[in-house]
Amino acid sequence: MRYTALPLAALCLLALSACDNGDGNFTTTTDGPDVVEGNGDLSLEVATLVWEDLEAGKTVGNTLAFENVGDLNLVIYEARVIDSAGGVFYLGETEDVVVAPGGTFDMTVTATLPGDQPKYGTLRVKTNDLDYLEFTVDLEAYPTGWGVDTGDTGDTADTGDTADTGGSDTGGSDSGDSGE
């Protein structure tokens, strides 16, 4: 009987040491596993932030409002301008912002046009809302007199057919400024 108890004891010690060898099998931690919380419920209707009639060299802010319409905290893990169009768009460090249920958080992005041409950029946001874990917001800055068509203005005569969208300029009869 002594002969069979030793191999059994050795096997138990080997099994216990394997459980705590750091390979991830059978180990437990007091902190719990790293998981995406999925608790927030973000309400955000803006897909594009637009600056119109910017004077060259003048810095203007535009606000993006994050509203928590859920019952648990919304966490904005990170918001960062990932395409600044050569420094036109700027957002200060925005990380780990907690928005309580029913609360809002206003984020201000600034734009400074260096000249008389429109610029385009991208803002990336990461949250704990499962529907909006990571998303982007387009950034568009237009100089004074560019003639931006940002949608329905209530003017029935505006068909949007001649609006300059910032693509290749084919004359831009709506801009009123043909000189460079």
In the predicted model, the low-confidence regions spanning at least 5 consecutive residues are 1-36, 152-180
Backbone CA Rg: 27 Å
Strand content: 35-45%
How far apart, in Å, are the first and last alpha carbons?
A: 99 Å
Largest sheet at a glance? 5 strands, mixed
Oligomeric form of this entry? single chain
Structural class: mainly beta
Strand elements, count = 9
The overall pLDDT, averaged over residues, is 72
Q: Secondary-structure element sequence?
A: HEEEEEEEEE
What order do the helices and strands come in, and which of them pair?
Elements: H1 2-19, E1 42-43, E2 48-54, E3 59-68, E4 74-83, E5 89-90, E6 94-99, E7 104-112, E8 119-127, E9 134-143
Parallel strand pairs: 2-9
Antiparallel strand pairs: 1-3, 3-7, 4-6, 4-8, 5-7, 8-9
Polypeptide structure, described:
Strand 8 and strand 9 (134-143) form a beta hairpin. This protein has one helix at residues 2-19; strands at 42-43, 48-54, 59-68, 74-83, 89-90, 94-99, 104-112, 119-127, 134-143. Helix content is 10%, strand content 36%. The protein has a 5-stranded mixed β-sheet, with no helix packed on it.
